[in-house]
Amino acid sequence: MSAIRKPARGVTMPSNDKPLVLHTPEEAGVMLAEFIHRCPGLMILTGAGVSTDSGIPDYRDGDGAWKRKQPVQHQDFMTSMAVRKRYWGRSLIGWPVIRNARPNPAHQLVAELETRNHSRLLVTQNVDRLHQQAGSRSVTDLHGRADEVVCMSCGYRCKRDEVHERCADMNPEFRQYTAGAAPDGDADLEVDFSGFHIADCPCCDGILKPDVVFFGDYVPKERVHSALATLKASDALLVIGSSLMVYSGFRFCRYAKEWGKPMATLNIGRTRADSLVDLKLNAGISETLAVSLNQL
Questions:
Q1: Is 143 one of the annotated active-site residues of the chain?
Q2: pLDDT tens string 54-87
Q3: How far is CA 149 from its chain centroid?
């Protein structure tokens, strides 16, 4: 295993006395195109900001602060029946938002970078698989994938929809609830979950969990080492739509700095790596990428 996907408790955005410059997509697009011309072989790291236009909420605001309560913790999920009931109960509302989401122009433009041989590897912190739907082929799902479920005891694996339907059938009274969607298949639903029935593993009655790296859990070390090997062989690192407040993503910026790799960020708001990067673009993602691709 490698570094924990921490919820950044106690981690704050680095102080910066410089005012945050807001770029127009035209300005940012030209600067990003120049960066790619100088560094044509990129490793790209994406975060939640890429998927917000697909209707999937993000965790943080432009200053890296939490927008809502922090997400479920791995240890809590594994040790508390109450936490699991709450998680799967809220998922009855939250999961369909991810399942039914479709790629937006940002996903498609990132896929186009790969088609034009500018992306050696796309490492995404998102679990929605929208990059793959948009046509990206060389993708590492750093935090796993929300569309599959795995048994934590015997390794049984199935589609998330199967567990979703089992939970819905066992808990018909929960069909009445509506709530706002939250990131990663969660929902902002606060009701009594004590009577919720959980779908356990059909093979061993073990705990079923989405194949996602929950906060407080470990990213598999093979996944990290493979991505770092590609970063070391790449010309530069491009971060899109991430505040980088979670260390599992921020680590790539630290290694890029150590290895002398140029870095660029494209994100609305500040990032944890602002002091490390060579090019910081504070602009709309889809609009900026569209301008850049027209320049390449």
A1: yes
A2: 999 876 555 545 445 667 899 999 999 999 999 9
A3: 17
47 close to 272: Cβ distance less than 8 angstroms: no
What's the token pair of residue 35? 């960066």
Contact residues for 295 (Cβ-Cβ < 8 A; gap 6+): 29, 30, 33
pLDDT tens track for 80-126? 999 999 999 999 999 999 999 999 999 999 999 999 999 999 999 99
Closest CA to 104 of 61, 51, 155: 51
Q: Which is catalytic among the residues 118, 131, 143, 164?
A: 143
Q: Which pairs count as long-range contacts for 200-204, CB under 8 Å and 24+ apart, including other chains?
A: 201/151, 201/153, 201/154, 201/156, 202/156, 203/151, 203/154, 203/156, 204/151, 204/153, 204/154, 204/156
Which helix (H) or strand (E) element contains residue 209?
strand 208-212
**CA–CA dist 284, 62 (Å, integer):** 12
Burial class (CB in 10 A: 0-12, 13-18, 19+), 81: exposed
How far, rounded to the nearest angstrom, does the alpha carbon of residue 147 sit from its chain's CA centroid?
A: 14
Q: Which residue has the tokens 């010309």?
A: 235
**What single letter denotes the amino acid at residue 212?**
V
DSSP per position, 139-188 = EEETTEEEEEEEETTT--EEEHHHHHHHHHHH-GGGGG----B-GGG-B-
For residue 55, CA distances in Å to 6, 44, 65, 198 come to 24, 22, 20, 27
